[in-house]
Structure prediction request, 223 residues.
Amino acid sequence: MKYVKRLLFALLSVFLVFTIISSLALYQEVKNQKVQEKALDELKQQRESERQNREYPVLGVNDEGEGVILMLKLKMVSGEGRILLDMKKTYLDESAQISTCKAVKVAQNITQTNLSDKNIIISFEVNESGKTQIEGGSGGAAICLALVSLIQERALNKSVLITGCVKNDHSISKVLEVKEKARCARNNGCVLFLVPRGQKLNISDLNVKEVSRIEDAMKYILY
Prediction:
């Protein structure tokens, strides 16, 4: 009788140990599954964000005559076909605003896309403190290319930078202070700098190439 009790106790102990181990294994499996699901959700959100947002360096010149880089940020959301300029950190003068509108129009023409049901949110991130004023239309080509990449879901080669005004016929017109912008581009790791036709210059350790149209620039910047 004692032998039977001991046997039953041993079997019960084994059963309990097996049950505990199985429960722990199941708990760990469920936990791992939740971690994987969370990672997949975060990846999906990241990819969705990448589809709706673009960042691209835009070159300018500050009050001291030095070339500077402003990080252009584009976001496309559902809306009524509006262009929304975020001016918390920057102020765009009239010519810069007109250039931005042209850039959006040309991007729609190139991609044959109707954005009447979308809003385009545009902002610039700067390292300088205070509010930075952006003057002129030399960032138009960069804005246009960034929007084309967003619409077509193509990537931007940020080691290739550009300066130039964009016109309604897709041509890129001349701008001021190209040398200062070129030096800034080189100092920030740019390997190829695109400029309007007739404005090529020699800058040590920087490849400079002329482009006449947005379509020409797309070959170097979009992929």
Remarks:
- The first strand starts at residue 53 and ends at 61.
